[in-house]
């Protein structure tokens, strides 16, 4: 793809053979104007940000399909179909340059592009989907005749186990090695036998999305290499400033650097926990005080949160030590737990400064026996959740509103409603990060003259 | 390896895996386990050659298609006396491994993954670029620990295990083993006693060893049913209108009978108010709870045994639920949910999900019990008794009495020593078929490499 200044673009593509959903295998041999380079990328970024937002709000797949359709029409449409396709492809490749440059950027871009692809695929008709599957060069065998007949009963059981009353199976099934469809296997959404999964036509999405993700992931690594070795230097007066500018404005704050509400001291921590912690962290904190122990998942979730809230390493060590030594002895603490705490602050091993978990990550975690991490709105039983909300001071009216959100699986909205009920204010932005909850809470409890965020 | 979370570290495994509340890892049974015995064990009894053969997977250097450095890229870790922990150990060959063990006499040996480069030399390679230090093969492993069942066993808790609760492990083996073979098509599966209160499973097929973390995670989640902790009452939620074929088979072939037979006999889960309340809480309908509670609270003192009372109440509960199951979707499979809660395997998901997770080696000795981590035959797991597994002191005694031959290759089984029986089983049931299959794999991939290079031959 060549970028040129202020010349008319000539697109060299053959309209007849364009698939409806580009797979971005190679950068096409087009010339692009410099202005379009940036504008196309920004429009696509708006779409990706919208997708990110929708996921964070816990939208179900159908809602996401609608959202993607709307976003795409709003930002990526063009009256000329081939122009629209060009914009699609160009914007993707530009954003690859932008988002290949660090692990965190890569991860975000990969997640969003995959989600975008998934929902655009779902919106296609069956023939177009089949064509897309073919584009990946997938050789999945259709299961027919006698073999299908012999499996009918088991396939019907799977269909029923997924919620349908009638055990009628689809007409087309594909036999696929189970390794190719991990999410279907994980959810027990397919019948598997001797290493083969029997995937329904309607479940094709999973197949292609896995392929897509894998291909984009590899592409990002290659792009990064090219960027660091040649492109960045060669383009330092032209494309590089654009590329570097594009990413920083669009990711939400990651709370790895705490701001002026920073100094929470150990003697205030119990007070602060009661007044400003979101429910998930409050629960972990209380359990820690009660049991003088937390399992790994809890230590990570709470520990990184505290780091984001401004707890310094020395104070964190003292805090965790004070609790754990009530149970395990200071020798064991030093040997086994202190290392992890320093690791979280980037003082050991890889020396990565880990970022506190956002709601999406916490909601999707899987607390097991003896765990207290996770999102209470999702992981607690109704009774336990009500009790916990009561302790936070919610009235029964407020509680019902929250429980209603929970029933509909809108966990972050439930947390937002709790926030609004506790502080008697509205929170339009919606909670999507525990540290955000904390900061907003502190703003209300200790108003200062507003300063520019760090 | 570029991931957001910190890598699984040995230290982490040390922290969460031993789920005991007693924090001091001192030797508890000095009669059963002490350094002196350990020296003799590693001096004379540990099956070095067998372990080496297993982990070489046929790469013994004899075939041109072999990778002679394969074994050397496997990570081992040693836990020494005083909890000194040595990670990233690797050995060129069997005798290097044997020498290292005989120098250190580790209390515990863990086996990790096969990496892209020799773990010992990992610092020589930059983290980015093409020569990254990353796992390339690792068995698919499972860890089942009976302490994860503490909420459903009444005979023991914590570190203890007895003949009344061990059957939970037996049924877990049956369910998982059947599924690994029938559903996933795996063949080379090794089950090992963890030495005290659980079992480990090593799936060694080449396909299993090459699974990515995502795929391992998928298999672990496929096996996951129990989602409980103290924050929720209904810990198994079976949705939909029927069970998935895997769960249905497990229920019909193993769980139902186990629940209604052995479990009831051993645990009498309805015999006291405290016990049956726990079960009543799993029923999402309050009216049904009340109905049953009233029946049982006001029951006159009967002459029935605990077990008979328990069984009778189970029948009542089943009848009530079956007749009312239309009332709500959450009641549809409530009976099955209860059975699953008490009997279905609870694996430690974290152990299975990541390639770099370390797991204790078979034939180690458990420091708390002195028992050897011997293989378990899944076809005869009903007969396995954790309290009859040879201990170090028994093995030493056997050597001292000089009666039995130490040679495990003796064909006469009655002449075989305590440990010899286990090693012999390991060899014949697991190692031999595995190595045969590995040879075939090496042969065929070597052949196809040659064919490929022939095809691409061009001037």
UniProtKB/TrEMBL annotation, chain A:
<comment type="function">
    <text>DNA primase is the polymerase that synthesizes small RNA primers for the Okazaki fragments made during discontinuous DNA replication.</text>
</comment>
<keyword id="KW-0479">Metal-binding</keyword>
<comment type="similarity">
    <text>Belongs to the eukaryotic-type primase large subunit family.</text>
</comment>
<keyword id="KW-0004">4Fe-4S</keyword>
<dbReference type="InterPro" id="IPR016558">
    <property type="entry name" value="DNA_primase_lsu_euk"/>
</dbReference>
<feature type="binding site">
    <location>
        <position position="375"/>
    </location>
    <ligand>
        <name>[4Fe-4S] cluster</name>
    </ligand>
</feature>
<dbReference type="GO" id="GO:0005658">
    <property type="term" value="C:alpha DNA polymerase:primase complex"/>
</dbReference>
<keyword id="KW-0235">DNA replication</keyword>
<feature type="binding site">
    <location>
        <position position="359"/>
    </location>
    <ligand>
        <name>[4Fe-4S] cluster</name>
    </ligand>
</feature>
<protein>
    <recommendedName>
        <fullName>DNA primase large subunit</fullName>
    </recommendedName>
</protein>
<dbReference type="GO" id="GO:0006270">
    <property type="term" value="P:DNA replication initiation"/>
</dbReference>
<dbReference type="GO" id="GO:0051539">
    <property type="term" value="F:4 iron, 4 sulfur cluster binding"/>
</dbReference>
<dbReference type="GO" id="GO:0003677">
    <property type="term" value="F:DNA binding"/>
</dbReference>
<dbReference type="InterPro" id="IPR007238">
    <property type="entry name" value="DNA_primase_lsu_euk/arc"/>
</dbReference>
<keyword id="KW-0639">Primosome</keyword>
<feature type="binding site">
    <location>
        <position position="280"/>
    </location>
    <ligand>
        <name>[4Fe-4S] cluster</name>
    </ligand>
</feature>
<keyword id="KW-0238">DNA-binding</keyword>
<dbReference type="GO" id="GO:0046872">
    <property type="term" value="F:metal ion binding"/>
</dbReference>
<dbReference type="Pfam" id="PF26466">
    <property type="entry name" value="DNA_primase_lrg_N"/>
</dbReference>
<feature type="domain" description="DNA primase large subunit C-terminal">
    <location>
        <begin position="270"/>
        <end position="438"/>
    </location>
</feature>
<dbReference type="InterPro" id="IPR058560">
    <property type="entry name" value="DNA_primase_C"/>
</dbReference>
<keyword id="KW-0411">Iron-sulfur</keyword>
From TrEMBL, chain B:
<dbReference type="GO" id="GO:0005658">
    <property type="term" value="C:alpha DNA polymerase:primase complex"/>
</dbReference>
<keyword id="KW-0862">Zinc</keyword>
<dbReference type="InterPro" id="IPR002755">
    <property type="entry name" value="DNA_primase_S"/>
</dbReference>
<keyword id="KW-0235">DNA replication</keyword>
<feature type="compositionally biased region" description="Basic and acidic residues">
    <location>
        <begin position="1"/>
        <end position="12"/>
    </location>
</feature>
<keyword id="KW-0808">Transferase</keyword>
<dbReference type="GO" id="GO:0006269">
    <property type="term" value="P:DNA replication, synthesis of primer"/>
</dbReference>
<keyword id="KW-0548">Nucleotidyltransferase</keyword>
<dbReference type="GO" id="GO:0046872">
    <property type="term" value="F:metal ion binding"/>
</dbReference>
<keyword id="KW-0804">Transcription</keyword>
<keyword id="KW-0240">DNA-directed RNA polymerase</keyword>
<comment type="similarity">
    <text>Belongs to the eukaryotic-type primase small subunit family.</text>
</comment>
<feature type="region of interest" description="Disordered">
    <location>
        <begin position="1"/>
        <end position="26"/>
    </location>
</feature>
<keyword id="KW-0639">Primosome</keyword>
<dbReference type="GO" id="GO:0003899">
    <property type="term" value="F:DNA-directed RNA polymerase activity"/>
</dbReference>
<dbReference type="Pfam" id="PF01896">
    <property type="entry name" value="DNA_primase_S"/>
</dbReference>
<protein>
    <recommendedName>
        <fullName>DNA primase</fullName>
        <ecNumber>2.7.7.-</ecNumber>
    </recommendedName>
</protein>
<keyword id="KW-0479">Metal-binding</keyword>
<dbReference type="InterPro" id="IPR014052">
    <property type="entry name" value="DNA_primase_ssu_euk/arc"/>
</dbReference>
């Amino acid at each position: 793809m060549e970028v040129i200044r202020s010349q008319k673009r000539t697109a060299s593509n053959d309209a007849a053979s364009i698939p409806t959903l580009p797979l971005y295998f190679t950068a096409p041999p087009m010339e692009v104007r410099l202005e379009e380079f940036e504008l196309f990328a920004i429009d696509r970024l708006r779409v990706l940000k919208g997708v990110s937002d929708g996921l964070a709000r816990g939208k179900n797949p159908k809602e996401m399909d609608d959202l993607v359709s709307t976003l795409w029409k709003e930002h990526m449409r063009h009256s000329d179909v081939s122009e629209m396709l060009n914009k699609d492809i160009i914007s993707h490749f530009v954003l690859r340059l932008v988002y290949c440059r660090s692990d965190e950027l890569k991860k975000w871009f990969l997640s969003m592009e995959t989600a975008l692809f998934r929902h655009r695929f779902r919106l296609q008709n069956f023939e177009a989907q089949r064509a897309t599957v073919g584009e990946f060069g997938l050789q999945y065998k259709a299961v027919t005749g006698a073999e299908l007949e012999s499996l009918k009963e088991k396939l019907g059981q799977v269909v029923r186990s997924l919620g349908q009353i009638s055990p009628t199976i689809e007409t087309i099934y594909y036999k696929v090695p189970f390794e190719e469809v991990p999410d279907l296997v994980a959810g027990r959404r397919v019948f598997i036998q001797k290493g083969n999964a029997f995937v329904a036509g309607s479940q094709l999405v999973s197949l292609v999305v896995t392929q897509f993700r894998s291909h984009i992931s590899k592409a990002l690594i290659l792009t990064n290499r090219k960027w660091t070795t040649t492109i960045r230097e060669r383009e330092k007066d032209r494309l590089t400033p654009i590329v570097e500018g594009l990413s920083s404005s669009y990711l939400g704050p990651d709370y790895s650097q705490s701001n002026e509400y920073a100094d929470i001291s150990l003697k205030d921590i119990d007070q602060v926990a009661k007044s400003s912690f979101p429910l998930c962290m409050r629960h972990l904190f209380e359990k820690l005080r009660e049991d003088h122990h937390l399992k790994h998942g809890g230590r990570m979730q709470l520990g990184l949160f505290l780091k984001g809230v401004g707890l310094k390493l020395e104070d964190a060590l003292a805090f965790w030590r004070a609790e754990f030594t009530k149970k395990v002895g200071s020798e064991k603490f030093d040997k086994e737990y202190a290392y992890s705490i320093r690791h979280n602050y980037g003082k050991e091993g890889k020396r990565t400064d880990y970022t506190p978990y956002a709601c999406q990550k916490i909601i999707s975690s899987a607390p097991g026996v003896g765990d207290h991490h996770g999102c209470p709105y999702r992981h607690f039983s109704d009774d336990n959740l009500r009790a916990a909300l009561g302790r936070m001071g919610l009235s029964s009216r407020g509680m019902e509103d929250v429980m209603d959100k929970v029933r509909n699986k809108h966990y972050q909205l439930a947390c937002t409603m709790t926030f609004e009920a506790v502080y008697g204010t509205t929170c339009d932005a919606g909670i999507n990060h525990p540290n955000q909850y904390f900061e907003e809470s502190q703003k209300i409890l200790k108003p200062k003259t507003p300063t520019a965020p760090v | 390896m570029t991931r957001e979370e910190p890598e699984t570290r040995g230290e982490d495994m040390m922290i969460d895996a031993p789920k005991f509340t007693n924090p001091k890892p001192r030797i508890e049974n000095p009669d059963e386990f002490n350094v002196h015995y350990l020296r003799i064990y590693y001096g004379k009894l540990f099956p070095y050659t067998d372990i080496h053969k297993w982990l070489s997977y046929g790469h013994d250097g004899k075939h041109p298609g072999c990778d002679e450095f394969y074994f050397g890229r496997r990570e081992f870790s040693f836990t020494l006396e005083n909890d000194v922990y040595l990670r990233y150990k690797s050995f060129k060959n069997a005798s290097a491994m044997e020498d290292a063990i005989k120098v250190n006499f580790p209390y515990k040996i863990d086996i990790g993954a096969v990496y892209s480069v020799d773990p010992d030399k990992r610092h020589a390679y930059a983290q980015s670029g093409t020569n990254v230090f990353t796992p390339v093969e690792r068995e698919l492993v499972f860890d089942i620990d009976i302490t994860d069942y503490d909420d459903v066993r009444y005979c023991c808790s914590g570190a203890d295990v007895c003949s009344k609760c061990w059957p939970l492990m037996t049924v877990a083996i049956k369910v998982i083993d059947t599924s690994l073979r029938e559903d996933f098509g795996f063949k080379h599966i090794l089950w090992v006693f963890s030495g005290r209160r659980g079992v480990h499973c090593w799936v060694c097929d080449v396909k299993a060893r090459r699974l990515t973390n995502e795929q391992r995670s998928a298999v672990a989640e496929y096996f996951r049913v129990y989602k409980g902790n103290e924050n929720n009452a209904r810990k198994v939620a079976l949705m939909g209108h029927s069970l998935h074929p895997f769960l249905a088979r497990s229920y019909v072939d193993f769980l139902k009978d186990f629940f209604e037979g052995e479990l009831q006999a051993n645990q009498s889960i309805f015999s006291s108010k405290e016990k049956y309340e726990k079960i009543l809480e799993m029923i999402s309908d309050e009216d049904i709870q009340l109905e049953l509670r009233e029946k049982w609270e006001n029951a006159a003192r009967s002459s029935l045994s605990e077990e008979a009372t328990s069984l009778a109440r189970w029948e009542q509960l089943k009848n009530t639920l079956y007749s009312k199951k239309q009332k709500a979707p959450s009641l549809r499979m409530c009976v099955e949910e209860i059975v699953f809660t008490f009997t279905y395997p609870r694996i430690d998901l974290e152990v299975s999900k990541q390639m770099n997770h370390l797991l204790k080696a078979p034939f180690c000795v458990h420091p708390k019990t002195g028992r050897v981590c011997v293989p378990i035959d899944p076809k005869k797991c009903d007969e396995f008794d954790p309290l009859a597994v040879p201990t170090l002191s028994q093995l030493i005694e056997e050597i001292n009495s000089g009666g039995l031959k130490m040679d495990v290759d003796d064909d006469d089984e009655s002449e075989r020593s305590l440990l010899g029986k286990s090693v012999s089983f390991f060899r014949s049931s697991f190692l031999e078929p595995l190595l045969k299959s590995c040879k075939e794999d090496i042969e065929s991939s070597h052949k196809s490499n040659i064919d490929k290079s022939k095809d691409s031959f061009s001037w």
